[in-house]
Amino acid sequence: MSEHEHVTGGPRLLSPRGMVTIRADFSELKTGDAVAAALGPAFPDTNCATNAKGRSLLWMSPDELLLICPAKETEALIVAARDALSRLPGGHHLVVDVSDARVAFAIEGPGARDVLARLTPADLRPGVFDAPQLRRTRLSQVAAAIWQSAPDRFEILCFRSVAGYVARLLEGAAGQGAPVGHLDRDARAGSRAR
């Protein structure tokens, strides 16, 4: 079987989008609520992503979110986030445009999860990693974030400086001669062992 039966069109670089890092003390509920109200998507649960109004809000760490938005909205949303956070008493915050520092890839099809499993130590089995979950992990030798943005569709974020390397990794893992079904074999082996 070719990769096209398992991964639709192979991995692809997504069009440039706005990406904004938001750092603040999100242990305060009002801080997360203020950001969500200003940006549109709900405040995400730990290791998750939320979507609304064509924007995504990704939980990156206890004090860091990443907003992904249409490029033309980036500046206005930075102003909105800074304004919302500056109205809160006493807390520090940082809102920075990182659009030029990162890129996003998408990989789709029933074999997409399996392709990613070849490259990362993260447990991507269905039921363990599903939408709206997000993982910060590694793809081979580089840092990346992965989330399932739709059934059989995963988005991968990495630094722009390693984009060529990540593209080659994804293409190689999805290419002909790279057998798929790893996760399916694990599931079958587990059911036989019970």
TrEMBL record:
Pfam family, one: SoxG
Domain of life: Bacteria
SUPFAM superfamilies: Folate-binding domain (SSF103025)
InterPro entries hit by this protein: SoxG, TrmE/GcvT-like
Protein name: Uncharacterized protein
